[in-house]
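Structure ticket #2291
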Amino acid sequence: MSSLPPPPQLEFDDVVEEILLRLPPKPSSLPRASAVCRRWLRVVSGPGFSGRFRTHHRANLPLLGWFVAPDEELYFEPNMDPPDRVPRGRFPSQPLPCGSRSLGCRHGLVLLYYMDQFQLKVWDPVSGAEHTIAPPAAFGSSIHIDGAVLRSATARDHKHFQVVLVSVEDETVPERTRVNCCVYSSETASWGDLISTPLSKAPDCLFMAKANVLVGVSLYWLLSGDPVRILEFNLDTKSLGVTVPPLEMNTFAMQCPQHSNGGR
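Resolution: structure written out below.
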């Protein structure tokens, strides 16, 4: 019985590339590596390397900072220490007029909601690209709207994104209060089907509190009120659920930590 042929030998540059791909995903890693020698500079500046580097570290990217809006302006607030600290002025600010608010940022994108115009905007601070989206008509009568933006894991490239919009219907009749959810895909430029679930024992006051959290394939929102609720949307099964925590919780003291399995 003949033995299997030996695997093809890697060229030296291929070996170097495989090593450099495993550098920590910090802003200073590749500039420092490129300063070592001309060969390393050629590898890290070669076509396709930056894309492979991002893909390799996609599940463990560092938090460079976040966008804050203390007044009527949204700007970048850096998080890391030198030499990996990204200056505040590296990204442009975004005006937030009265009647608008930021719904959060994730995967390098920012989601803005303009209540007066009933419009959403997905903003890429790096490229400056802006995508204006009209929410589904079913959300027009909602009194509480929140949402999340994330890069699409199923798209053919990382340029596409998804917007998950959630809302609470007018609870003038508490027994009929429902949570609605809908997903927008930039790949198809359209919204999916409306997903809805009832809220039993609806409280007198209900609104989205705290930023949403992505853990695995599910997004979570905290619904404050009496009782406190946790809203879960599964991105794979497109299912929506509401649970009541087993213990009394202080809504504003609750925080979800980042998990090693991809929680954000």
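Closing remark: Residues 256-264 have pLDDT under 50 and may be disordered.
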